[in-house]
Amino acid sequence: MSIKTNGILSIFLITVPLALFWAGLPALAHEQRTVGNYAIEVGWHLEPAYRGFPNAFEIFVTRVSDDQPVSVKKGDIVNLAVEVQLRDREVFDSRTLQSAKLQDLLRQSDDNEGQYNMWFLPAVVGTYAFHITGTVSDASDPKAGCSRLT
């Protein structure tokens, strides 16, 4: 009887702290959308984001038809402007409290052809959103064409 109790106690002592640890973590996610013939995934480069620590807007761009990355290194076009917005709530139609156009260049990742980052310093605690405008065009697949983000 002592062995079963110790086994259950051991499982309890391992499981409960792990459950409390995972429950205490913030929700981390990138938002995914389809724009024309392209799939885009947008979020923070480093999650969770903290005020006063450098971070980046991050976007992944792939063709919907074959899930291949869109790469400026291969002649594709990813010409985007990003406005970072501080929102009053975490819902789509929330009110924008502050906004600023990011001035850094959109840089393609060396490790992932379809990944692009634009670095900045979050200065305020709150709910952030990204408003993206520009053009994505795929030279390697003329059928994919050009899509405008507005």
Termini separation comes to 67 Å
Count of the separate structural domains: 1
Q: Please tell me what the overall shape is.
A: globular
What is the helix fraction of residues, given as a range? 10-25%
Order of helices and strands: HEEEEEEEEE
Number of helices: 1
The main pleated sheet reads as: 5 strands, antiparallel
Radius of gyration: 21 Å
The CATH topology comes to: Immunoglobulin-like
* Strand content range: 35-45%
Unreliable spans are: 1-27
Number of strands: 9
* Mean pLDDT score: 81
- Global structural class: alpha+beta
Strand order within the widest beta sheet: 1-2-3-7-6
Name of the CATH first level: Mainly Beta
In short:
The chain has 150 residues and is an alpha+beta fold. It has one helix and nine strands; from the N terminus they run H-E-E-E-E-E-E-E-E-E.
Walk me through the structure.
- With 150 residues, the chain is of the alpha+beta class.
- It has a single domain, classed as Sandwich (Immunoglobulin-like), CATH 2.60.40.
- The chain is built from one helix and nine strands, in the order H-E-E-E-E-E-E-E-E-E.
- The longest helix is centred in the N-terminal third of the chain and has 23 residues, at 2-24.
- The radius of gyration is 21 Å and the shape is globular.
- The protein starts with a helix and ends with a strand.
